[in-house]
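User: structure tokens for AraC family transcriptional regulator, please.
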Amino acid sequence: MRRVAVVVLEGAKPLDVGIPAQVFTTRASMPYSVSVCGVRPGPIAGGDGLSYRVEHGLEAIEDADLVFVPGYRNPDRERAPAELTDALRRAHARGARLAAISTGAFALAETGLLDGRRATTHWHYVRALAERYPAIRVDERVLFVDEGSVLTSAGAASGIDLCLHILRKEAGMAVANHAARRLVAAPYRSGGQAQYVPQSVPESHGERFTRTREWALRHLGEPITIERLAEHAAVSPRTLSRRFRDETGYTPMQWIMRARVDRARELLEETDLAVDEIASSTGLGTATNLRRYFRRVLGTTPTEYRRTFSEA
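Assistant: Done. Predicted tokens:
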């Protein structure tokens, strides 16, 4: 039997806690035992109107083979408890695997064990994670990241994908597929699949070029160059490029490409236009270009995206 510990923090998200507890649940068909713990035993205020009462403190981590840190509220404003950070480091040092679901990545990042590695979290928090922990290579697109001894996943449902991925590696396909059927979940989704964030165009940290960005969004189907953007903003192309990156984190043309992909996504969801028509109307030119940019930004194809999200 392999031992699994699920650490519940203040503000823990119920689904994030429940997923590993249920996937690795102690039963005859599963070679695991599960302990749910807190920094210390007793009541814990959770998120979404729920609270928890756990019997175990961090001593449950001491002999665990696999430790999960579920997501919790306000990770960008509150640091993980130092006692947890130390316990996770000790567990990792003796060979335990550490896995974070959603914003649990912040607690795992606090240990320093993600430094120099790829990691992900819920799309809403990827920028905060990258800014607080710049040594981490944050991947905003994917469902989960497996870096061997440390693993991270995106929003709650992707925690199921991460758990099934771990099951496939540790216990084999038969056990993983059995668990997926029990959960009525897809038996396999690649970690590299996109999170399908509401927008791939990032929020702006500045207002200087707001009108120019709004203008660009209304003219995505037309040829747009740096020179044309600079003319609208009444600055030189060099100034536009420098200041635009400061405000958005992207070059002007990277931002335009992502805005076009977002518009293409809307058309795929809401219309039955052919892929080449969508590519032309969004300024991406050809269906081949649209597929290439979709793969680059979202890790999927327009056809797969439409199949997943089309209201039809």
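User: Anything notable?

Assistant: The chain has a mean pLDDT of 87.
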